[in-house]
Amino acid sequence: MPYLAVQIYASRVPLAQMGLPVEASLVAAFVLLSLSTYVGGLRAPALMAIVKDIMLVTVILVAWIVYTHEIRGGWNIFLPSFIIRR
Fold it and tell me: pTM higher than 0.85, yes or no?
């Protein structure tokens, strides 16, 4: 099923961004999707899509929090454009 292959590939990206090596994240995504498909039938890819979306949102939020903390606040993102205009 092509949809299962897309879910495995798309689940690899958030797992790799969380710090797992690429091969390990691909194996983890395959095992997670295979077990959930075995237990839940063909409804499992839809549930896996929800889990993948939650992982993706988590990675984006953590990256945003870390980035704004490193530049000492969100308004410092726009500081270079204010300096250039003056």
Answer: no
